Amino acid sequence: MSGQGTYTAATAGEITIGGDLTVRRLGFGAMRITGEGVWGEPDDRDAAKAVLRRALELGVNFIDTADSYGPEVSERLIAEALHPYPDDLVIATKGGLVRGGPGDWRANCRPEHLREACEGSLRRLEVDRIDLYQLHTVDSDVPLAESVGTLADLRDEGKIRHVGVSNQSAEQLRESRSIVDVVSMQNRYSLSDRGSEDELEACERDGLAFIPWFPLASGAATRPGGDLDEVADRHDATQAQVALAWLLQRSPAMLPIPGTSSIEHLEENVAAASLELGDDAAELD
Fold first, then answer.
1. What 3-state class would DSSP assign to 179?
2. Residues 62-83, buried b or exposed e (16+ Cβ, 10 A)?
């Protein structure tokens, strides 16, 4: 299998978010287009913007970002590269994490911060309304109802189209959904990290999109050896492509968002949408 632009994200099929946003089931995570440690500007801004444009050329129409990526860098690059946006492009962003430096992530889901974060994302992305705005984490210092309630208020004000959540348990998801109509959940999940099985099942049951972050487990899914290596060899694919294909086959609710700062890796990831594992998927279960 090649990743040289001969495949498109359309092969992954589609998923509908919130009843009115239909996107291809292989998106792009825009965390890695920032500097090292997800901090500051990338070494080559033009290259980062070229990756974003190439993603759209390859049929990707769902981009996930956050105000904390950079911070603010990822959202600005998206606007610089892609605005005015195609009609079918859905940009999802998040608020609720703040940064102290490279690799430093801290929760701040206080209502006043979430409101400021959303307003900032609106400005940087150059939109009047954010298609999907996600609560990035759960803040142990703030009642979940207050954080989610703020997103409900922002939706009612027309600043958010749909509300999503991230890094929540199944119980926290139920509480969030009792406050506002939640349409998606973004939790860590991959071939080698299946700790969010309960949350995935809840999304499948109730028609929510499940957006796995770290879909390649930060490289863990691509280490040589074992069943993954054997399956990749049989399909003339990379281990990363097999890991992404497994996610797509795992559940119709799945919307993987592999991220990269490399056009070559982007093309390889998109090519994974065309990989049919068949019975080999069971070997990886």
1. coil
2. bbbbbbbbbbbbbbbbbbebbe
Residue 6 falls inside a structural domain: no
| Strand-pair partners of 93 | 133
- pLDDT tens-digit series, residues 152-179: 999 999 999 999 999 999 999 999 999 9
Torsion of CA 190, 148, 184, 194, to 10 degrees: 20
- Domain assignment of residue 204, yes or no: yes
> What pLDDT, on the 0 to 100 scale, is given for residue 218?
43
pTM: 0.95
Residue 234 resides in a domain: no
Q: What is the pLDDT of residues 103-136, one digit of tens each?
A: 999 999 999 999 999 999 999 999 999 999 999 9
**Which of 69, 85, 133, 189 is the catalytic position?**
69
Measured over the CA atoms of residue 151, residue 71, residue 15 and residue 172, the dihedral's sign is negative
Question: Residue 67 is part of a domain; what is its CATH number?
Answer: 3.20.20.100
What is the Cα–Cα distance from 26 to 256, expressed in whole angstroms?
5
Report if residue 227 sits inside a domain.
no
Is 69 among the catalytic positions? Answer: yes
The β-bridge relationship of strands 160-166 and 130-135 is: parallel
